[in-house]
Write a structure and sequence with these properties.
Layout: H1 12-19, H2 24-30, H3 35-42, H4 44-53, E1 59-64, E2 70-75, E3 88-92, E4 106-112, E5 115-121, E6 125-131, E7 137-145, E8 151-159, E9 164-172, E10 179-184, E11 189-194, E12 199-202, E13 209-211, E14 214-221, E15 227-232, E16 237-241, H5 245-248, E17 255-261, E18 264-273, E19 276-284, E20 293-297, E21 311-315, E22 321-324, E23 329-333, E24 339-344, H6 352-356, E25 359-362, E26 372-373
Length: 374
């Protein structure tokens, strides 16, 4: 007599605990297992718990490709992220209903909790799309007319007090005080305030970096030394963070770009030396404390004469750095500057402009208020 096979069913709470520790890509596949699993993984509360508890988060480096309608995303935690084709995902740029003919002017502005902010620039107006590459959901923000003879400092952040995502434009003019525009995804509306500080010139190459609840840029006030401005997206206030004196005196000769390394704000300075653009890092070890700035060089060895220019684009695990020569080569270096791998390809960072507008993001299942498939 054959023994009856008994069906073993795990408790639902245990299934939830297991799923919360899986990667986003695995969870998206597992939505097909059953209706109950699909409903669970699609639940916004599950997505919020997952971003806090996931044991295997995936971080990707996103940049525009040589094809203006595509974005490349590299899994930086893969064993060989540059040489392994399976670590690279190509996304189509989400279509804009307003800027149908301006794909060449799409800019990657920032990332926050798995969302990417894209900016579309037309002849006299700008628009935005907030987009989750993992789920394909996003929201297009109604465009605003651009103010002529002004410079836009843009950024993207998250307000945990209201579970809201905020687009920020700091508009600089040589004739007026700065104006700060904020778009709340939850309220679905713009607000505008003016700053009394006489900021006149943006010195940062790239967009605002989000850290400790604030977006950061480097600016030059009228008749004063340059400072970092930090816009708190929760309090909607603008404050200044002073630079170290040694860095302030080099402002006329160098290029600057903000990055984040191990939870610290890093200002990369690129100065010309013997016809080459040489980078150094200024790391603020204690946030907002001027005396905590530490200066260090970015180590590298010029293997195979890969570098006419050397530009770090992001920091990844184990002290490793992704960098480029700003032409067609992306490289991965260890903390001693030794070459781990490189890839020469037309679709990888073939323009200096692309380098300034690339981001690191973490895959997530989160959704936005009124998010739709785009």
């Amino acid at each position: 007599m054959n023994k009856m096979k008994r069906k073993v069913t795990l408790p639902f709470d245990l299934i939830v605990e297991i799923l919360l520790r899986l990667s986003v890509r695995s969870l998206l596949r597992f939505k097909c297992v059953s209706k109950s699993w699909c409903a669970l993984i699609s639940d916004p509360e599950f997505a919020k718990s997952h971003i806090d508890m996931a044991a295997a988060p995936t971080h990707r480096f996103l940049f525009t490709s040589s094809n203006a309608s595509e974005l490349n995303a590299i899994d930086v935690e893969a064993e060989e992220p540059l040489c392994d084709d399976s670590a690279n995902v190509v996304f189509k740029v989400p279509p804009s209903s307003t800027f149908k003919y301006y794909k060449h002017s799409v800019r990657v502005v920032g990332s926050c909790r798995g969302f990417i902010l894209l900016m579309f620039t037309g002849l006299d107006s700008i628009g935005f799309i907030v987009w989750n590459p993992s789920t394909g959901l996003g929201k297009e923000i109604l465009h605003k007319p651009m103010e002529r003879s002004c410079e836009y400092l843009s950024g993207f952040g998250y307000d945990p007090s209201t579970d809201d995502y905020v687009i920020v434009n700091v508009i600089l003019s040589r004739r007026k005080h700065p104006k700060i525009e904020c778009f709340s995804l939850r309220a679905n509306s713009w607000s505008c305030t003016k700053s009394k500080a006489p900021y006149r010139e943006n010195l940062t190459f790239g967009d605002g970096v989000f850290l400790n609840g604030a977006l950061h840029w480097l600016v030059k006030p009228k008749d004063k030394v340059a400072v970092i401005i930090a816009f708190d997206v929760t309090k909607r206030t603008l404050l200044e963070i002073p630079l170290p004196h040694d860095l302030a005196i080099m402002l006329k000769f160098n290029l600057f770009r903000f990055m984040v390394r191990q939870g610290c704000l890093v200002l990369c300075s690129f100065g010309w030396k013997n016809t080459r653009l040489m980078p150094e890092m200024w790391t603020m070890k204690e946030y907002k404390v001027q005396s905590s700035w530490i200066r260090s060089l970015v180590p590298y060895k010029n293997y195979y004469n890969l570098f006419d220019l050397f530009l770090p684009v992001c920091f990844i695990l184990n002290g490793e750095t992704l960098a480029s020569n700003a032409i067609n080569t992306l490289v991965r270096l260890n903390d001693k500057g030794e070459l781990l791998e490189h890839r020469m390809h037309e679709s990888i960072l073939n323009k200096f402009y692309t380098l300034l507008h690339c981001v690191m993001y973490r895959e997530s299942l989160l959704s936005l208020p009124s998010a739709q498939g785009i």
